[in-house]
Amino acid sequence: QVQLVESGGGLVQPGGSLSLSCAASRSRFRISVMGWYRQTPGEQRELVASLSSAGDTNYADAVKGRFAISRDNAKNTLNLQMHSLQPEDPAVYFCNARAHRTYSDYEGTDYWGKGTLVTVAS
């Protein structure tokens, strides 16, 4: 089992910056991909950015060039640096991890945090 706890959400002015952090519990499970998703009321959860264990990154077109995903191995956290925040960015941001129990567990299991709220307003 993998436990994920997000933090760093809050209120920021348009054009401002905010940093999110996801603390992951240490586990024997192998995590292949971690990422950030966001969701607004009545809408589907969408990918913001992901980072694979191999170091490959993937960003949604809407945030590319403004957001940066990274991993801090010393603190066992996944981070999201958000810059030039726009009125379109407010949402609940969720941390995700795909973990594999065994060597033969190719598909893995997705684990989710409870989310942290990001609000963009003056």
Task: Characterise the protein shown here.
With 122 residues, the chain is mainly β. It contains no helices and eleven strands. Strands 2, 4, 5, 6, 9, 10 and 11 form a seven-stranded mixed β-sheet that branches. The chain starts with a strand and ends with a strand. The model has no long low-confidence stretch (mean pLDDT 94).
* Strands, total number: 11
Rounded to an integer, what's the Rg over CA atoms?
A: 14 Å
What structural class is derived from the secondary structure elements?
Answer: mainly beta
Major pleated sheet: 7 strands, mixed
End-to-end separation: 40 Å
Q: Into which percent range does the helicity of residues fall?
A: under 10%
Shape: elongated
Look at the structure and give the mean pLDDT.
94
- How would you classify the quaternary structure? single chain
Q: Percent of residues in beta strands?
A: over 45%
Low-confidence stretches: none
Number of helices: 0
Tell me the series of helices and strands, N- to C-terminal.
EEEEEEEEEEE
In short, what is this structure?
The chain is an all-beta fold. The chain has no helices and 11 strands.
